[in-house]
């Protein structure tokens, strides 16, 4: 094989490898953004859940266990929304 043909073959393989890798890097970036969005949603929900529990306890119309369950339900809803964002 002559030198020119070898250089053409190597450059062709390098370009093919670069084109094959490109979709995976963009997918990873998109997936990372989705994970961040889901995490931000969960973190934003935490103070809301605390506030809801505090208001529930102050109202004295529910037991402490019911207030805890309301807080859990609020956080679980946020987790589900986060899963919907990610998947």
Percentage of residues in strands = under 5%
What's the shape?
A: rod-shaped
Q: Give helix % range.
A: over 70%
- Unreliable residue runs: none
Largest sheet: none
> Which series of helices and strands comes N to C?
HH
- The chain-level structural class is mainly alpha
Topology, number of strands: 0
Q: DSSP helix count?
A: 2
How many whole angstroms does the radius of gyration measure?
Answer: 26 Å
Please describe what this structure looks like:
- This protein is mainly alpha-helical.
- The protein has a domain at 32-87.
- Helix content is 92%, strand content 0%.
- It contains two helices and no strands.
- α1 packs antiparallel against α2.
- The two termini are 50 Å apart.
Quick structural summary:
By secondary structure, the chain is mainly α. 92% of the residues lie in helices and 0% in strands.
Keywords:
mainly alpha; 2 helices
Topology (elements, then pairings):
Layout: H1 3-59, H2 64-86
Helix pairs in contact: 1-2
């Amino acid at each position: 094989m002559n030198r020119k043909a070898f250089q053409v073959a190597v450059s062709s393989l390098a370009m093919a490898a670069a084109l094959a890798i490109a979709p995976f890097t963009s997918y990873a970036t998109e997936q990372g953004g989705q994970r961040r969005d889901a995490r931000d949603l969960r973190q934003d929900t935490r103070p809301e859940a605390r506030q809801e529990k505090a208001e529930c306890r102050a109202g004295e119309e529910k037991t402490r266990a019911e207030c805890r369950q309301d807080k859990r339900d609020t956080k679980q809803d946020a987790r589900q929304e986060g899963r919907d964002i990610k998947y």
